[in-house]
Amino acid sequence: MDASVITQPDAPAFRPRRAHAATRGDRAFRWLTAGAAWLVLFVLVAAAASMAWGGRLAFRTFGWDFITGSDWDAVGQRFGALVPIYGTLVSSAIAMLIAVPISLGIAIFLAEVAPRWIRGPIGLAVELLAAIPSIIYGMWGLFVFAPFMANHIEPWLTERLGPLPILGPLFSGPPIGIGMLTAGIILGIMTIPFISSVMRDVFQAVPPALRESAFALGATPWEVVRKVTIPHTRSAVIGAIFLGFGRALGETMAVTFVLGNAHDFSVSLLMPGNSIAAAIANEFTEADSAIYLSALIALGFLLFVVTFIVLAIAKLMLVRVERKAR
Amino acid sequence: MRSIVRRRKAVNAAVLIAATAATLFALFWLVWILWTTVSQGFAALSPRLLTEMTPPPGADGGLLNAFFGSAVMIGLAVVIGTPIGILAGTYLAEYGRRSKLAETIRFVNDILLSAPSIVIGLFVYELVVRPAGHFSGYAGGLALAIILVPVVVRTSDESLRLVPNQLREAALSLGLPQWKVVTHIVYRSAATGVATGALLGIARISGETAPLLFTALNNQYWTADLASPMANVPVVIFQYAMSPYESWHALAWAGALVVTAFVLALSILVRVLLRPRTYK
């Protein structure tokens, strides 16, 4: 075989064809990947649209009453979602009251206290809290934590805080363990890893020169955190909090177990309540009329829109830090 | 002067002690939850878990059909979700880069990553279950795939971007078309990262309950027919835990232990795989 036979006469005609095939392959691959990328956008839009469509009957029938009304009556077919909306916001707020300071503490611990060798394992352990499936939190909450609350924490709260003028009503009622406070605490535990891991990452990304100059001026570790680290990472810290809040708003299974699925409004945090996600999870397969089903899907739409806004704020705050670092 | 210094030091010590306490507080819950799951789950473990079907109320049995259903639906989700996720990640890292479209998709993807999973369940219900008229394993697999995709997109985007540009340039200068550069050179050097993404995605969807509640629903019996409602571990745990029967509670704990052990093992494996980052 003589190689020149192949290359010489054929080459001019052959090469353009190969080049053409290559660009065709390139174009096809590019379109394929672009299509997959567009699919991500499509899912978001389609999810919102399909729920708006599925909930249109409820929105049209009840109008604003759907958000401001508080009776949820499957038999009378009147649906107002105030109680689940209130429950979602209050349980998530309790979660934030717990998760934000704890997460900040963990981030400070990992940045300023922990010796280097222990940072990895501790960070991993905290992140494992996020890996535990939410249904496990729910089961543990129902079988272990709710009885613990009922027997030890809630009687104490009622006794100490119950008689107080403004706070009192929040902590009144029989200690049954299931309710807004228990759900909020569990949500708080669940959101700790999300908030703390972002905080830890941005704390570590603070330029060493900044921290070291503060130390050189005689600042204590806490003063470095308060006057250098946090101001430098402020928007990411806020972003992390919003991220955790978004997670807490949409959390379903853990809350479903311990909220009690009550549709009566009660001020007390010790009483059973409801949340948007829990109401959907509990009632969806039982919804026997078109309007009931539509009301639950409309709830899903509300949840989606609210979490989208919260998570978008979180993302925007976090992107700002990324830009600064770049 | 002295007192100011003493006060600053005292405040500092107090804060650092509080920070340490906060860390211990978080770890305390981890230990408590894991301890409960392990002790309750171990007590309920038995070989019958893998040989018998889910029992009727009050009776004994196993979780065979649920394990099978979960495995099938997770498999389906991986088959649908991983290629889409890798391709989308490829677009972001190789073509889109810092363009407006790519940044928008990253933004949306990150939101989907944290979006409530129950909403995805509702979406698939509207998309598949309602038109088809019945719950099905396909719908469950699709819902899980939608949750898996953003995880894979993000990790493959990140790991592909870690591949140094010189590699691409060297391959291009040899006359390789770009798609071959990506599939033969870039994918190979980012393989660990991309594979980790898939593992991370599996860890994420293995315990997901909410999106399966109204897509795959549940099934007390064995079925290999994806077009019918399918048993799966998370929903079985949910139903059995909420029931008043002791034997069902025990099965729920056994299922919980298996799922938790699986997910935690995967999460730890992912971190071990990711540690030796060659490109930075």
Automatic annotation (TrEMBL), chain A:
* Any one cellular-component term (Gene Ontology): plasma membrane
Q: Which residues form a coiled coil?
A: none
Asked if the record carries the keyword Transport, the reply is yes
List residues traversing the bilayer.
28-53, 85-110, 122-146, 166-190, 236-259, 291-318
Enumerate the Gene3D superfamilies for this protein: MetI-like
UniProt-annotated location(s): Cell inner membrane; Cell membrane
- What residues does the ABC transmembrane type-1 domain cover? 85-314
GO MF term set? phosphate transmembrane transporter activity
A single GO BP: phosphate ion transport
Q: Which SUPFAM superfamilies match?
A: MetI-like
* Membrane topology qualifier: Multi-pass membrane protein
**Record protein name field:** Phosphate transport system permease protein
Source organism (scientific name): Sphingomonas metalli
Q: Name the gene that codes for it.
A: pstC
From TrEMBL, chain B:
Give the source's domain of life in one word: Bacteria
Q: What is its main location?
A: membrane
Tell me the InterPro entries matching this sequence.
MetI-like, MetI-like_sf, Phosphate_PstA, Phosphate_transprt_permease
Alphabetically, the GO molecular function entries are: phosphate transmembrane transporter activity
Q: Which Pfam families match?
A: BPD_transp_1
Residue ranges of every copy of the ABC transmembrane type-1 domain listed in the record: 67-270
**PROSITE patterns recorded for this chain?**
ABC_TM1 (PS50928)
GO-annotated cellular components:
plasma membrane
Q: Where is the protein localized?
A: Cell inner membrane; Cell membrane
Its GO biological process annotations read: phosphate ion transmembrane transport
* Membrane-spanning residues: 67-93, 105-129, 135-153, 185-205, 250-274
Q: Does the keyword Membrane apply?
A: yes
Membrane topology summary: Multi-pass membrane protein
Name the protein family. Answer: Belongs to the binding-protein-dependent transport system permease family. CysTW subfamily.
| Protein name, entry field | Phosphate transport system permease protein PstA
